[in-house]
Design a protein that fits this description.
seven-stranded antiparallel β-sheet, 14% helix, 2 domains, 4 helices, 353 residues, alpha+beta
C-alpha cells in the first residue's frame, strides 16, 4: 500500500528575519518616495501672483521663470567678511522719501553714509546699510548676531539654492551668498524639505500648500508679523503687502511682543538655532546659536524666546536650525560653524538700482 506524502509543516521565519524584511521594505518605500520629492531636483513654478509696493497684487504669467531676481550687475564675490557687496553709488534724495513704501532712509538718516563704504572687522556702513555683527553667551551657549538697519526694504531679500524654486535643490549657503554678494546672510526656512507650507519670496507666491506651522510675514512697508497656521489667508496677506512669507517656525514672541513658554513645535529642547528678529520697520536682527558641542549645547525654544526679548525685539521667528543653522558675513560662516547645503537663505545686500 502506497503511503500518502504529507508535506512537512513550514517553519515560521525567525522573528529577527521578519523584522529585518519589514525594515528593508520600508526603507525601499521611503527611498522611492524621496527620490522624486527630495533627491532628484524638480523645478517648480510660481502660482501666478505677485505683490508689489503699495499693496497691489499682480497676475504674472504661469510660465514666469522661478529663479530669484537676478543679482545686480555690480555684485562681485566676497573678498572679506563684511565687504561682499559691491556698493552702488548713492541715489539722489527723494523729494518725499516717507511717501515711498519700504523706504527708511529718512527714518534712520544718521545711520547711513552719503555714499562712502566704511568697513571694519565686525561692521559695515554704506548709503543703504548699517550692520554690526557681535557675539555673546546666553544660558551657557554661544550665539552670533547681526544688528541690521536698511535704507530700503529690498535690501533684505531672499534667494533660492541655484536661484531656482523647486524640490530637491540644495546648495552651500556660502555659495549662494557669494553669488549674490550679500553682506550678511542667515539660513532660511528650508522650504525644499517639505511639500506643504506657504512660500512667498521677494513678493512672488510660489506655494500655497497645507500648512501646520506658524508663519512669519515681512511686508513691503518693513513691518513683520507672526501668525498661527489656523485661518491664514495668503492671498489676503499678499493684498496687505506680503513681501516674504516663511513657514518653518515657530513664532518666538507673542502678539504683545512678550516671551513665550509654549510653542507650536516638537523640537523644543536645546539645539543649534537660527532666528530673525524685528524691532521696527527698517531695523532687524539675525541670530545664530551654536549647539551640539562641548562649548555650546544650543538653546531651547523657551531660552531663544527670552533671548530675542532681551535683545529688544518686538517680533521674532525661528528659522531652520540644527545642522542647517548658519550666519554668514560675506560668504564666510561666523564662528567657523559650517552648515549643510540648504534650499534658501535670507540676506542683506546693497540695493539693486
Amino acid at each position: 500500500m502506497r503511503r500518502k506524502f504529507k508535506p512537512s509543516p513550514r517553519r515560521p521565519l525567525p522573528l529577527g528575519w521578519v523584522i529585518a524584511a519589514h525594515v528593508i521594505a520600508l526603507g525601499v518605500a521611503l527611498l522611492l518616495y524621496a527620490l522624486p520629492h527630495h533627491v532628484i531636483p524638480r523645478e517648480g513654478q510660481s502660482l501666478g501672483l505677485r505683490s508689489v509696493r503699495g499693496g497691489a497684487v499682480e497676475t504674472i504669467a504661469s510660465g514666469t521663470p522661478t529663479a530669484s531676481p537676478q543679482p545686480s550687475a555690480s555684485a562681485t564675490p566676497a573678498q572679506s567678511p563684511l565687504s561682499s557687496a559691491s556698493p552702488a553709488p548713492a541715489s539722489s534724495p527723494s523729494p518725499s522719501p516717507e511717501a515711498i513704501v519700504g523706504d527708511f532712509r529718512a527714518r534712520f538718516a544718521d545711520r547711513f553714509t552719503d555714499g562712502a563704504v566704511e568697513v571694519t572687522e565686525n561692521s559695515y556702513r554704506s548709503a543703504d546699510l548699517n550692520i554690526t555683527v557681535f557675539d555673546g553667551r546666553y544660558e551657557g551657549s554661544v550665539y552670533h548676531a547681526a544688528d541690521i538697519y536698511i535704507a530700503d526694504i529690498e535690501c533684505l531679500a531672499t534667494a533660492f539654492a541655484h536661484d531656482t524654486y523647486g524640490s530637491g535643490y540644495a546648495e552651500d549657503p556660502g555659495a549662494i551668498a557669494q553669488r549674490w554678494g550679500s553682506v550678511v546672510a542667515l539660513s532660511g526656512d528650508y522650504y525644499g524639505a517639505h511639500d506643504g507650507g506657504i512660500v512667498v519670496r521677494n513678493g512672488v507666491l510660489y506655494r500655497n500648500g497645507l500648512n501646520q506651522n506658524d508663519l512669519c510675514v515681512l511686508y513691503w512697508d518693513g513691518t513683520m508679523r507672526t501668525f498661527s497656521p489656523s485661518g491664514f489667508d495668503v492671498e489676503a496677506e499678499l493684498a496687505n503687502g506680503a513681501y516674504q512669507v516663511w513657514c518653518f517656525g515657530p513664532m518666538l514672541l507673542d502678539e504683545s511682543g512678550q516671551p513665550m513658554t509654549r510653542f507650536n513645535s516638537n523640537v523644543t529642547p536645546r539645539n543649534p538655532r537660527a532666528a530673525i528678529g524685528f524691532y521696527e520697520p527698517g531695523h532687524y536682527c539675525f541670530v545664530m546659536v551654536e549647539g551640539r558641542t562641548e562649548e555650546s549645547e544650543g538653546l531651547s525654544l523657551e531660552e531663544l524666546s527670552q533671548l530675542m526679548y532681551d535683545m529688544g525685539c518686538t517680533a521674532a521667528y525661528n528659522l531652520d536650525g540644527g545642522q542647517s543653522a548658519a550666519l554668514l558675513m560675506g560668504s564666510s560662516t561666523v564662528g567657523g560653524v559650517d552648515s549643510r547645503s540648504i534650499s534658501d537663505i535670507v540676506m542683506v545686500l546693497e540695493r539693486t538700482r
